[in-house]
Amino acid sequence: MKLYRLVAFSCLSLSVACADQSPPGPGILTATLKSPNGAEGAALVVLMGPGIGEVTPVGSNQLYSNSSLDEVRIVLINQNDGTLAFRVEVADTTIEPTAIVEEVANPHNQIRSTLDGYQLEFRR
Predict the structure, then answer these.
(1) Per-residue burial over 74-87, b = 16 or more CB atoms within 10 Å of its CB, e = otherwise
(2) Coil vs helix vs strand at 96
(3) Where are the domains of the chain?
């Protein structure tokens, strides 16, 4: 009887762990700038990879973008004290684009001297 319970518990645990996994296919990812310094004023980021579509701002952020083949350059401007974030359409939500944070400005529009600790976090 104990073995039956162990197997049932294991199966239930695995099904719960996999419940938030969506199948491959087109969709939208939300990208958020993770900063070691808290809220930022603006950022220049580059997304690379196949199947990158339209990018749109989240919240009150302003977004400007320029696309070419498999690359999208994005300027994000924070209009409030919130987080710099945007949505990106992709051909497969299980594959995140390669992201490079090229430049960041603090809330007083001063360029950060180092980009250590900055990254884009993607979520479905």
Answers:
(1) bebbbeeeebbbbe
(2) coil
(3) 23-123
Cβ pair 115, 101 in contact under 8 A: yes
pTM: 0.81
CATH number belonging to the domain at 23-123, selected among 2.160.10.10, 2.60.40.680, 1.20.1250.20, 1.10.1040.50: 2.60.40.680
Distance separating alpha carbons of residues 72 and 55, to the nearest angstrom: 9
Rounded Cα distance between 84 and 77, Å, is 7
**If 0-12 CB within 10 Å is exposed, 13-18 middle and 19+ buried, where does residue 27 land?**
middle
**Residue with token string 């950022």:** 43
Digit-coded pLDDT (tens) for 52-88: 999 999 999 999 999 998 999 999 999 988 899 999 9
The tens digit of pLDDT for each residue in 4-23 reads 554 444 544 544 445 456 68
